[in-house]
Every structure is written in structure tokens, then in C-alpha cells.
């Protein structure tokens, strides 16, 4: 799941394409596990989401209401982690069969998507393109940039600009949404360029149609009203500037943490030609146990991001068991073992070193 675009101006003149033959044994084992782990458990989804929301908004309320600076900071950190986990369910929403979890998309939008101005349509119909076998790692992938092949300064910029996401989303929904209803040209621009959680600046989203368009319009209308109302409350003093600043700061922290997680979700070493499924897997990252911190910065199954590219239909709560079983099923020299890493610092350093290599 991604949020801020970055230009490709830092790309070297000679691009790198990863060519790896598919490992049939690994893919057969993954296909077998898909059949045995594809059942989503609604109780887990709802309990996890509601707990994350209660912790996130509860801590945010404490941060706003307390007069103590120390408590405000501590509560803001808790709010950021809780809301980040709740937000991360947008990834599950984009993959799930909604008949298996009736009402979950609507509930997520009501609790998280609209209040945080990241409604599900910003990811649905976009993220699935990232999983298309012929699109991954190419200019047609909305969630891919060859960051490891770009200039070193692009990595800190990639993270820093994400802090502006809450302001950008307020502008998108409070200003551009209503104005675009008056201009078909502006509407096309808003849909194509400002309606996707993507990092590829060349990606242009298609206009939705049919039921998808009707659902989009309903959710966007509510999100637009919420954004306008939030700004109006702050402008009239009903919501104090301190409270508004805390809300924006927590939302910015969520965006930055997500962007850091995005930075280490892949190795970002491909540019150009389509890749085999095995190559896509090896360009992706697992951070399995015994590491503990990934449960915070890569929640809701995102610590098994490489495995997710093999098993995109497997619900997040089953990925841990699938990882353990697949690890035991494949040979010791299987490429499956090569996508697991120890933690965040080593991954950031690895990508950073890649940008230092002169090509």
C-alpha cells in the first residue's frame, strides 16, 4: 500500500532488468497452500479492526484533551500505531471477496477510510495491477519505482514528501472533489492523477464504470463533506488549532511510517521488462519471526509481503502459518528462503547501498 509519487528523474541511463527462471517446485507448493489457506475468518477481521480503531481514536482523544505535553506525545505515538494498523486493512479490502466478509468494506470506510481520507476506491482497482504478472516492475505498475537504481537523494525525499499526505488529501477531497463536479476536464484529471495510492508518476487511472462508479461517487461525496467539515471546524475555532495540529501530525506520522514500510517492501531493482513470478518474489521482502518490531511497522500480514505475492488470495491472518508450512515444504536451496530478511535497518541499508553503485 503506497501514497506519494516520486519522479524518475534520478534514474540512470542504463536500466536493469531482473531475469530469473520460475522455480516450479516453489510455485507448486504455493498453489497447494492457496487451496488450504484461502478462507477468511470474519471474527478475526472485525475484532482486529475494531480493536485498532478503538486504540487509535482513543489515544488520539487523549492526545488532544490532555494538557500534558509528555502525555500528548506518548498518546500520539499510540494513536499513530493504532490508526496505521487500522489503515493497513485497505490492503485486505482490495484483495478480499466481499461475499466472504459482508459489510467489511463499508465498515472499514466508515471507521477508517472516510475519517482518514483514504477511502477504499483509492486502492481498489489499483493494487490488483501491481499483482498482474506482466505489469510488476514495469512502467505500467502503479506501485513500483526502481528506487534502488535511482540517485541516493531520492530515498530521503521519498520518505519526507509523505509527511505532506494529510494536507494533500484535504485539498483533494475538500477542494478538488467539489470543483471537479463542475468541470469534466478537471474531473478527468482528478480521477486519473489524484485518486490512487500509487508511487509511479506515469500511472493514469481509468474512469470507473457501472457499480464501481456509483460506489465511488457515494463514498467520495461523504469523504468530501467530511474534509470540508473538518476544515470548517478548524477555521471557525470549534476545533482548536492545537487539536487540528495534533490530528494532522498523527496523520502525517501514519503516512511516513507507511512510506518507510513501502520503501522496504521490495528491493526495487527492476526497470523495464516483465519479470517471472519467482523474480517478482525475490524482489519482494518477508520479515518473519523471530523479529518482533515488524508486527508494528508491517502489520496486517505486510511482514510477509513476498509471500503475499505468491499467495495474493490468502487472508492476512493465515500468512504466518503458510510461511511456516512453505518453509518446511521446499528444499534448503529453494529461492523461497532468499526473500526473508532480519529487519528494517538492514533493508534500508541494502537499498541505500544499491543507490550508491555507479551504473
From TrEMBL:
Coiled coil: none annotated. The chain crosses the membrane at residues 44-65, 71-90, 102-123, 153-175, 215-235. Residues 75-337 form the Fatty acid desaturase domain. InterPro entries: FA_desaturase_dom (IPR005804), Fatty_acid_desaturase (IPR012171). GO terms for molecular function: oxidoreductase activity, acting on paired donors, with oxidation of a pair of donors resulting in the reduction of molecular oxygen to two molecules of water. One of its GO terms (cellular component) is membrane. One of its GO terms (biological process) is lipid biosynthetic process. Keywords: Membrane, Transmembrane, Transmembrane helix. This is Fatty acid desaturase. It comes from Sphingomonas abaci.
